[in-house]
Write a structure and sequence with these properties.
By secondary structure, the chain is an alpha+beta fold. The protein contains one helix and eight strands. The strands form two sheets. The chain has a four-stranded mixed β-sheet with strand order 1-2-3-4, with no helix packed on it. Strands 5-6-7-8 form a four-stranded antiparallel β-sheet, with no helix packed on it. The structure holds zinc ion. Zinc ion binds next to loops.
């Protein structure tokens, strides 16, 4: 059964890479799609300005988190786009209601502020 354990090991490694893949960045014009997908950070652009970023809450509660990117509105996040296609948001994202998720979003990855 060597082939089976080898197959299991390779499948587990592939699944692990898939689960830990970074978020993709998707630029959308003017409005968000009706339904957001996991592992994608949506960046809404209008007239050449980035207005907001949105993601499904990484805790799995399915809420959509909106981060304003317009400098003259508060609260405001700064979005950095990296050469590898990932993004970073600054400062951290903190839901003060509901699930209470609090995390940093760096280079397409969620870093929890406290263990989940
Ligand atoms: Zn949540």
């Amino acid at each position: 059964m060597n082939w089976l354990s080898s197959l299991l090991r390779r499948t587990r490694a592939r699944l692990d890479r898939w689960l830990h893949r970074p978020y993709r960045t998707l630029i959308v014009q003017e409005s968000l799609p009706r339904k957001l997908r996991r592992k994608i950070v949506y960046v809404v652009e209008e007239d050449g300005f980035v207005e907001q970023a949105a993601v499904l809450c990484p805790c799995g509660c399915r809420r959509v988190l909106h981060m304003n990117l317009l400098a003259d509105e508060r609260p405001c996040w700064r979005l950095t786009r990296h050469d590898d296609g990932t993004t970073t948001l600054h400062p951290s994202v903190w839901r003060t209601t509901g699930c209470g998720s609090h995390f940093w979003f760096r280079r397409g990855r969620v870093e929890w502020c406290r263990p989940q």
